[in-house]
């Protein structure tokens, strides 16, 4: 008899063991920690603020431009707090250059991806939080490859800083700009790397030059439904947007599509999302990848609407339908447009605000994990 999905899953809250940790970087530390590290190395603590200014505010990546640091100590200071974390392997462009997907090689050879998407009114970075993913969702390119390791706080932040540099330098059509939004919807399950993800959110929202000075309301943290971590996030006091990747309104189907559902059911996941909305007063996004003949039936739209309405009609939730970006050789494919429209109609008829996500990057292997899988 085959092993059940719940027993074959890894202990999703555990840090993968036996791997060398990424080099320590100033983005891993708060201001006090940066000063303390330099002091412990016999260097002047106030230099930490100068390094932070170069990294977070000026977006400098060339030590030669850090002219306020003493030349005799510059290399030592940079080595202590600004080690190289990741190297770009490939950058592919779509949408006339306004969508840029980058494949990165980390210090240990692990591959991760990030995507910069520029719109007329904003610029969004989609970042990875793990190299690979242990959630084993069968329709996801990343899930097919398994989990290699968690990423560090600084490795997550570096993806955003790299995007910010590209915008500031005018490398993206539309002139110089800034990253306004970050979504944790790249490779990995953010809630399974909770400590590093929260650290990255704090670095993004720390006022400049301690961090990037972003608004927490512009940051979205996605999860397949790790209920204890959703509840923990509700108590952090950081008003990020929570996105629950539901993909099915019933346990029978969701057990197949999102195996962690055998541990935390549809109702448990939705209830924790409602609790997050009630605690933070932030509307939750329900992510729902539309798969032809699998989860796109009209009756499932009705079931989803009824489930969400059980928790009240005070505007706590929004459904975001995602046309599936199929992976090569996969049986999973996008829904017929007519079925998609009917799904929207059924949800809206029950008073559930619903949108269909604007899909970008199909021609550049836009689904998370496709580039890494092709290069591994």
TrEMBL record:
Report the coiled-coil segments: none
**What's a BP term from Gene Ontology annotated to this protein?**
rRNA base methylation
Annotated Radical SAM core domain ranges read 119-362
- The entry's active site is 113 (proton acceptor), 368 (s-methylcysteine intermediate)
Q: Where is this region: Disordered?
A: 1-25
Q: Which GO terms describe its cellular component?
A: cytoplasm
Q: Which UniProt keywords apply?
A: 4Fe-4S, Cytoplasm, Disulfide bond, Iron, Iron-sulfur, Metal-binding, Methyltransferase, rRNA processing, S-adenosyl-L-methionine, Transferase, tRNA processing
**Enzyme class, spelled out:** transferase
Query: Per the annotation, which location comes first and is thus the protein's main one?
Result: cytoplasm
Binding of [4Fe-4S] cluster: at which residues?
Answer: 133, 137, 140
Keyword rRNA processing listed:
yes
Question: Is Methyltransferase there in the keyword field?
Answer: yes
Catalytic reaction list: adenosine(2503) in 23S rRNA + 2 reduced [2Fe-2S]-[ferredoxin] + 2 S-adenosyl-L-methionine = 2-methyladenosine(2503) in 23S rRNA + 5'-deoxyadenosine + L-methionine + 2 oxidized [2Fe-2S]-[ferredoxin] + S-adenosyl-L-homocysteine; adenosine(37) in tRNA + 2 reduced [2Fe-2S]-[ferredoxin] + 2 S-adenosyl-L-methionine = 2-methyladenosine(37) in tRNA + 5'-deoxyadenosine + L-methionine + 2 oxidized [2Fe-2S]-[ferredoxin] + S-adenosyl-L-homocysteine
One short Pfam name that applies is: Radical_SAM
Q: What GO MF annotations does this protein's record show? A: 4 iron, 4 sulfur cluster binding; metal ion binding; rRNA (adenine(2503)-C2-)-methyltransferase activity; rRNA binding; tRNA (adenine(37)-C2)-methyltransferase activity; tRNA binding
Relay the cofactor remark from the entry: Binds 1 [4Fe-4S] cluster. The cluster is coordinated with 3 cysteines and an exchangeable S-adenosyl-L-methionine.
Record's subcellular location: Cytoplasm
The positions annotated for binding S-adenosyl-L-methionine are 188-189, 222, 245-247, 325
Q: To which protein family does this belong?
A: Belongs to the radical SAM superfamily. RlmN family.
Q: NCBIfam families per the record? A: rRNA_mod_RlmN
Role played: Specifically methylates position 2 of adenine 2503 in 23S rRNA and position 2 of adenine 37 in tRNAs.
Q: What's in the misc comment field?
A: Reaction proceeds by a ping-pong mechanism involving intermediate methylation of a conserved cysteine residue.
Protein name per Swiss-Prot or TrEMBL:
Probable dual-specificity RNA methyltransferase RlmN
Question: What is the protein's species of origin?
Answer: Nocardioides guangzhouensis
Q: What is the lineage of its organism?
A: Bacteria, Bacillati, Actinomycetota, Actinomycetes, Propionibacteriales
